């Protein structure tokens, strides 16, 4: 459900997206290097080490009880040996996303719940891609798109708080999914706004499109399907509820993966590991 935006609303949205902080150049460089088949772990580690704050936070997570390493790791080079470069890349991306979020907003949008859900969704999407779409899709792309899929909500809560607050209330009062309530109130939903933002951040066209279409039943590509399944599973894995109403599309979309939400949930097994992983990242980001 999408309506034509008024010139005034379109201008406000463009301004809101422009006012969001830029995604860290170090993470953009990591993603660029990751797309190069000849890239070595050392090159990625060197990028992270140029950001001292990022390095400290990544090491804090690595040395947490979650990884249960035999002794304290003091360098990222050493960490690669124990947990692998892909895990380190995911941590850097997650911590960067957390770091650019506003600490408060006038809409009353719960950033802690939002972050927990985004991190859980990212972990699940990565695992789905690794298990059921290996060779067809990059698990890193799935992690990115899941981590950032709801970032449009942050933009709306920060820069269009009254309208977003009204949309959340409409969703709660009527049971309409939030993305539909947003369209009724604003003429646009957070998926479209999020796509505008990640395009400004220079993410790939595939990531932009997956975020833009993650509430559309007609979207049938692997990246969006992984996101769809992970989003639904994440909502079942935790007690995070941004609104009383569900904010996900009807079931039955993941045709290429051949998995329903129920089947994918059963195959993944214990979901608590994704919840714990999210909690560890959140703790490192605020300490």
Unreliable stretches: 240-246, 249-253
What is the fold named in CATH at topology level of the domain at 7-21 and 124-274?
Hypothetical protein af1432
Question: What is the average per-residue confidence, as pLDDT, rounded to a whole number?
Answer: 86
- Percent strand equals under 5%
Order of helix and strand elements from N to C terminus: HHHHHHHHHHHHHHHH
Which structural class do the helices and strands define?
mainly alpha
Give the helix tally: 16
Brief synopsis:
This protein is mainly α and 287 residues long.
Describe this structure in words.
It is a single chain. With 287 residues, the protein is mainly alpha-helical. It has a domain at 7-21 and 124-274: Hypothetical protein af1432, CATH 1.10.3210. Helix content is 66%, strand content 0%. The chain has helices spanning 7-19, 25-34, 41-49, 52-62, 76-83, 85-99, 111-132, 139-148, 151-159, 161-174, 178-186, 190-200, 205-212, 222-237, 261-268, 272-286. Helix 1 crosses helix 12, helix 9 (151-159) packs across helix 10 (161-174) and helix 12 packs antiparallel against helix 13 (205-212). The longest helix is centred in the middle third of the chain and has 22 residues, at 111-132. The chain is globular, with a radius of gyration of 18 Å.
């Amino acid at each position: 459900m999408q309506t034509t935006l008024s010139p005034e609303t379109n201008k406000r949205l463009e301004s809101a997206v422009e006012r969001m902080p830029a995604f860290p150049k170090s993470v953009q460089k990591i993603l660029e290097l990751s797309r190069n088949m000849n890239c070595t772990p050392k090159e990625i580690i060197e990028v992270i080490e140029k950001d001292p704050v990022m390095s400290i936070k990544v090491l804090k997570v690595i040395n947490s009880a979650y990884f249960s390493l035999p002794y304290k790791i003091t360098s990222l080079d050493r960490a690669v040996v124990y947990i692998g470069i892909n895990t380190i890349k995911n941590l850097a991306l997650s911590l960067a996303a957390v770091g650019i979020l506003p600490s408060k907003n006038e809409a009353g949008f719960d950033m802690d719940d939002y972050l927990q859900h985004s991190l859980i969704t990212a972990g699940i999407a990565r695992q789905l891609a690794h298990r059921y779409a290996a060779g067809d899709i990059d698990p890193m792309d799935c992690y990115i798109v899941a981590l950032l899929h709801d970032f449009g909500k942050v933009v709306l809560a920060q820069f269009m708080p009254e309208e977003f607050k009204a949309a959340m209330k409409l969703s709660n009062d009527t049971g309409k999914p939030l993305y539909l309530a947003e369209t009724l109130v604003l003429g646009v939903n957070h998926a479209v706004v999020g796509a505008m933002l990640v395009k400004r951040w220079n993410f790939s066209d595939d990531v932009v499109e997956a975020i833009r279409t993650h509430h559309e039943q007609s979207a049938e590509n692997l990246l969006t399907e992984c996101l769809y399944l992970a989003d639904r599973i994440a909502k079942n894995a935790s007690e995070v509820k941004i609104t009383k109403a569900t904010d996900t599309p009807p079931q039955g979309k993941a045709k290429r993966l051949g998995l329903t939400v129920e089947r994918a949930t059963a195959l993944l097994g214990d979901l608590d590991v994704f919840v714990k992983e999210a909690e560890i990242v959140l703790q490192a980001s605020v300490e």
